[in-house]
Write a structure and sequence with these properties.
The complex is a heterodimer of chains A (about 750) and B (about 60).
Chain A: E1 13-14, E2 20-27, H1 33-44, E3 49-55, E4 60-66, H2 72-81, E5 86-88, H3 96-131, H4 136-157, H5 159-170, H6 177-196, H7 204-238, E6 242-246, E7 252-256, E8 265-268, E9 278-282, E10 285-288, H8 290-293, E11 299-301, E12 306-307, E13 312-313, E14 318-322, H9 329-345, H10 351-376, H11 381-394, H12 398-417, E15 420-422, H13 427-432, E16 436-439, H14 441-445, E17 446-452, H15 460-470, H16 476-482, E18 495-497, E19 501-506, E20 509-514, H17 522-531, E21 536-542, E22 548-556, H18 560-569, E23 573-577, H19 582-592, E24 596-598, H20 603-615, E25 620-623, H21 630-635, E26 638-642, H22 647-652, E27 655-657, H23 663-698, H24 704-723
Parallel strand pairs in A: 16-23, 16-25, 23-24, 25-26, 26-27
Antiparallel strand pairs in A: 1-2, 2-4, 2-5, 3-4, 6-7, 6-8, 8-14, 9-12, 9-14, 10-11, 10-13, 15-27, 17-22, 18-19, 19-20, 20-21, 21-22
Chain B: H1 4-27, H2 34-40
Classes of the chains: A alpha+beta (about 750), B mainly alpha (about 60).
């Protein structure tokens, strides 16, 4: 049965070079430079390994080896023996596009920096010369050199903005890039006209500085998102989603899930997590569907039934025929609802775009008014046009363009330290406005795994022996007991009786662990069932001594009550929407003091309820993890899911939190509210700056020197203000654990 | 003022050299792993491991 090796071939890139293979691995457990040394030296000493280089920033290992001398499995085993768990990426998932985009931004930034610094050097000379004795010829020379530097640089480094502005205008929207593009283009055009006319002033440095500052903001923003995404990818790879494929000749092969196609047959062993969607062909078992439906009771399953990825198999072995994603009834449902919900969400308008749609008409109106006013006052249309354009330049939305990305970058860094990954940058804005929290129960309010809840009532020796015997069972509930075993060998000769339990004969005493009937412990079990109505019961008997019964059930996350209380203190209305039985949901709701709850909810019911809340004017934060939650996560105004959630749900959520505790949720809310406040402050600062600058420009007093000073001044103030997001505590008092 | 015809091209050329250097560094992946590079300078790749005694604490095995 164990005669199968993991098949890594789907992950390995064979090179054109003679027999050299490449593989990228996400490595777990790296804490410092010493780990890097150990891994690189340990692998480098292996025969056949050509190159092993660990990236200490992203915790990824690039491996190259010669095909003829070693293979991926050996190398990964060596890594494991060094104490590091490693899992390969799907080559398809390593996003070269993201990296290329980041490099493009950096190159644009470098060009803008080079050109703006050199132009600034020339401009300062012109400003100084204008105040003293520069000759018109020298000034023209300086202006022409500036033009030579500015035009190609602006064409190259501003592409991101022009493209986005073009798309926005073509679809009839206004975003921040529209006024940026107009500003840069007009500033350069006016400067060239002024240079041709031998004028005193040109605005090349304004245009280039604008691009330079904005590119810094863009790059920081992009980098932040890339970092969280690469972290999330590492997590996904480390979860090692693999399936045991049954080949045509009946042999078994362990392959990455992505290599399994519809129609393949997959073996699911007792106690294993099902990694594909499909239909059972052989075998009967019980299955824990809590990650899919929220239902915590095991469901009986037999040939012809459907199983879903993420469910946990019980005592029996199953052969599953894989069906194409989306053809299962539940998945169909989920996917359709998810699409609708995501479409509805894309209509949300970002704070920055809202500001832009207010700002652009106002500024362009002011410029038009300045032109008309001066023209009617009789200074001629040409000088009037110069004044109008200077209004547009001075209001170049430098501060406005930085106001929100700067805060997002700072906030996402702080969120990361509190154990939260930000999926959508605008999630912060939407979370700040939420006033109702809807929790899923299973895996969200409760811990994702079951736990032994009456350990304190059992004699310590009993639990230790029971746990040791449990090691021989593959039943998921036995696995919970086995977690208490510590470092011991399983009993030799233990025998599993399918559907009942395990037994072993030690020194003439028979030890049994299994169902209460199997151990003759019905009376004790009935007594315990009265106190733990929702628990699965496991009995233990050693020879003729009185049996012990263990209760295994879903436990509420350790800080769930504190989080609920903190949310109430912040004025949130709290509800539970669960797919589980009413008794189970009511019990948790009662314990946490949540009055509003609904049980037995299907995905469509959850969405309908959330839509109802939203129609009543509430802004809903949905927190959930199951496949059945994915559509409602997308339908809610904003959503959070734990890192243990199924893939679809994580992708639909705006935030993902790490770890066993629920506290990051409160930190996310506090931080988002603060970040949102700082964003609004920044917008007001930018508006205030314009309120001073625009009248000056309309009056015709703006020289390039004033424009440059005002622009850098406002950008720096806005950026500094963004750093205030970091200050002060967030979340539950005295309970911040920083995920380093 | 003729000296400007010399100094400005020189200044621009210097700037361009650094721009090109940066582009080269970016292209060859010099910015891929900033944390690792900081520690790599401390490693004695070419020396055998007898000198464990002289290593800083965090590199001892």
């Amino acid at each position: 049965m164990n005669a199968h090796a993991r098949d890594w071939s789907a992950f390995v890139t064979p090179s054109e070079e003679d027999g050299v293979c490449r593989l990228d691995l996400a490595v777990e457990g790296i804490t410092c430079a010493a780990c890097m040394v150990q891994i690189e030296k340990g692998l480098g000493a292996q025969p056949g390994v050509k190159r092993a280089r660990l990236n200490l920033t992203s915790h990824r290992l690039a491996l190259e080896w010669r095909d003829t001398e070693t293979d991926a499995g050996t190398v990964i085993d060596v890594l494991e023996s060094l104490g590091y768990r490693a899992h390969p990426f799907d080559p398809g998932r390593v996003d070269e596009v993201e990296k290329a985009e980041s490099q493009k931004l950096l190159r644009a930034l470098a060009v803008a920096a080079f050109s703006s610094m050199n132009i600034m050097l020339l401009s300062v000379s012109v400003w100084a010369g204008n105040a003293s004795d520069i000759t018109p010829e020298t000034r023209d020379l300086f202006h022409w050199i500036s033009a030579l530097l500015a035009l190609p640089a602006a064409a190259y480094s501003g592409q991101t903005f022009y493209r986005s502005a073009y798309h926005a205008v073509r679809t009839g929207r206004l975003n921040m890039d529209v006024p940026i593009t107009i500003g840069v283009t007009l500033a350069l055009a006016l400067s060239i006209v002024e240079t041709i006319n031998h004028a005193d002033h040109a605005y090349y440095e304004s245009a280039m500085m604008l691009l330079f500052f904005l590119l810094i903001g863009r790059w920081l923003d992009h980098n932040m998102r890339r970092r969280t995404r690469s972290f999330a990818e590492n997590l996904a790879a480390l979860r090692a989603e693999a399936a045991t494929q049954i080949l045509a000749d009946g042999s078994l092969r362990e392959v990455p899930v992505s290599a399994v196609a519809a129609g393949d047959r997959v073996l699911v062993r007792p106690g294993e997590r099902v990694s594909v969607d499909g239909r059972v062909e052989e075998g009967t078992s019980e299955i824990d569907q809590s990650l899919v439906t929220g239902e915590t009771a095991m469901a009986a399953i037999t040939a012809g039934d459907e199983v879903f990825a993420g469910t946990l198999n019980g005592p029996g072995q199953l052969v599953v025929r894989v069906v194409a994603a989306g053809s299962g009834t539940l998945l169909d449902d989920v996917n359709r609802l998810l699409d609708n919900a995501l479409e509805a969400k894309s209509r949300y308008m970002h704070l920055a775009d809202r500001a832009a749609s207010l700002y652009a008409p106002l500024v362009h109106g002011a410029a038009a008014a300045a032109f008309l006013g001066w023209w009617l006052a009789g200074i001629g249309w040409q000088p009037a046009l110069v004044i109008a354009i200077s209004v547009l330049i001075i209001t170049c939305p430098c501060a406005l363009g930085l106001a929100i990305p700067a805060v997002q970058v700072v906030a996402s860094g702080t969120l990361f330290r509190h154990g939260l990954l930000l999926n959508n940058g605008d999630g912060i804005e939407r979370l700040a406005g939420a006033d109702t929290v809807v929790f899923d129960k299973t895996g969200t309010l409760t811990s994702p795994d079951q736990a032994l809840t009456n350990a304190a009532e059992c004699a310590p020796g009993t639990l230790a022996s029971a746990a040791r015997l449990a090691l021989s069972s593959r039943h998921p509930i036995a696995a919970v007991i086995a977690a208490h075993a510590g470092k011991v060998e399983p009993f030799a000769g233990a025998e599993e009786v399918p559907g009942q339990g395990v037994r072993v004969l030690i020194d003439g005493t028979e030890l049994r662990l299994g169902s209460p009937a199997f151990c003759g412990a019905e009376t004790e079990a009935a007594a315990l069932a009265a106190r733990h109505p929702l628990a699965s019961l496991v009995a233990w008997r050693a020879g003729d001594r009185p049996p012990t019964v263990f209760a295994v059930e879903q436990t509420v996350r350790p800080d769930a009550a504190a989080v609920v209380e903190a949310l109430k203190a912040r004025g949130f209305a709290i509800e539970i929407l669960s797919g589980d039985r009413p008794s189970a949901v009511g019990e948790v709701a009662g314990r946490l003091g949540i009055e509003t709850w609904k049980a037995g909810q299907r995905p469509a019911d959850k969405i309908a309820h959330i839509d109802g809340l939203r129609r009543a004017g509430r802004r809903v934060l949905m927190i959930g993890d199951g496949l059945n939650d994915a559509p409602s996560l997308a339908a809610a105004d904003v959503s959070i899911s734990p890192v243990t959630a199924v893939h679809v749900s994580q992708a639909a959520a705006d935030f993902v939190f790490l770890g066993e505790r629920l506290a990051p949720v409160v930190a996310a809310i506090d931080l988002s509210r603060r970040a949102h406040r700082v964003m609004r402050e920044n917008l007001w600062i930018a508006a205030g700056y314009n309120a001073v600058a625009v009248p000056l420009a309309i009056a015709g007093y703006v020289t390039p020197l004033i424009a440059a000073g005002a622009m850098s001044g406002s950008s720096i103030i806005v950026t500094l203000n963004a750093w205030r997001t970091r200050l002060g505590r967030v979340g539950l008092p005295g309970r911040i654990d920083e995920a380093d | 003022m003729n000296i400007l015809l010399l100094t400005i091209p020189v200044a621009l050329a210097l700037g361009l050299i650094f721009l090109v250097l940066f582009m080269w560094a970016l292209k060859t992946g010099q910015f891929e792993d900033l944390d690792g590079a900081a520690h790599r300078v401390l490693l004695n790749d070419d020396v055998e491991d007898e000198d464990n005694e002289t290593k800083p604490d965090f590199l001892k095995e």
